[in-house]
Structures are given as structure tokens and as C-alpha cells.
Amino acid sequence: MPWLLLLIAGLLEVGWAFSLKNSAGFTRLGPSLVTFVLMAGSFALLAIAMRTLPLGTAYAVWTGIGALGAFTVGILVLGESADPLRLLAAALILTGIVLMKVASPA
Q1: How far is the C-alpha of 64 from the C-alpha of 31, rounded, in Å?
Q2: TM segments (predicted)?
């Protein structure tokens, strides 16, 4: 269950990163409110997952999911660059997440 909560927390992180971008520096009310709600949910689920999972593993996986998700949204939704070096960097982050999961005792 903590891994599922951590996954959902990471996905909420992707959502708040995207809404943060859409808030235009907190100058747009709707996206700003969505950002804060998703942040609160993401942090809450991360905190619950950390009851069981080691700090380093939980935090690294959470930020990795957020980074990869935001990277993917940037490419697919915002038209950001998908050059080979950026894709390699994303693959290395994914490798790190998998290794953290495999190495975790929980």
C-alpha cells in the first residue's frame, strides 16, 4: 500500500507542476488554487507512505516520478524538446527509480 500511495503522490506532483506552469507565476486564480490543492494531496500521501518506506527511497522515488511526469507532460502537452540527450537523462532518472524500488526493504 505505501508504494501505491507514493505513486499517487508522484502523479499529483506532476499535476501540480503543470498547474503551476499554467498559473503564470500565481497570477491566474484557477490554476493557482489547483496547484495548492494538488500540492497538499501530494505531500499528505508522501507523508503517509513515509510511515513505512525509508526517507531516502520515498523522497527519491516521489521526486523522480514528478520529474519524469513533468518532463513527459512538457514534451507531449507543451511542445518542449525531446532531443536525445534529454531522453537519456530521463532514462537515467527512471533507472534510478527502479533501482530504489528494487533495493528497498519495504
Answers
A1: 23
A2: 33-50, 57-79, 85-103
In the chain, alpha helices (H): 2-22, 29-49, 55-76, 84-103
Distances in Å between the alpha carbon of 105 and those of 3, 35, 94, 101, 102? 12, 33, 19, 9, 8
Residue 64 contacts residue 92 (beta carbons within 8 Å): no
Do the beta carbons of residue 74 and residue 44 sit within 8 Å? Answer: no
Q: Check pLDDT > 70 for residue 62.
A: yes
> What is the extent of the structural domain holding 52?
2-103
Give residue-wise pLDDT tens across range 1-24: 999 999 999 999 999 999 999 999
Report whether 5 contacts 48 (CB < 8 A): yes
pTM given for the model: 0.88
